[in-house]
Amino acid sequence: MAQTLTITNSIRRLRFDADEMTQKALADRVGVTRQTIVAIENAKYYPTLELAFLIARVFDKEISDVFSIEMKD
User: Which of 34, 36, 37, 40 is nearest to 9 (CA)?
Assistant: First the structure.
């Protein structure tokens, strides 16, 4: 039986904790569109590894502090 993989993130909370950083401001800092950040926050799009590291760096966090994985049977 195959496992289902779900990746979640804490970007919205991190933005709020970072003086309520806007999605646009984060997008500008990592070189993507605001729509990309919206899609990542809502788990509609999984970022590339490079983008995930860039996002973590903006918040001065480890990638595992921003993104987590859940596997279900």
Answer: 40
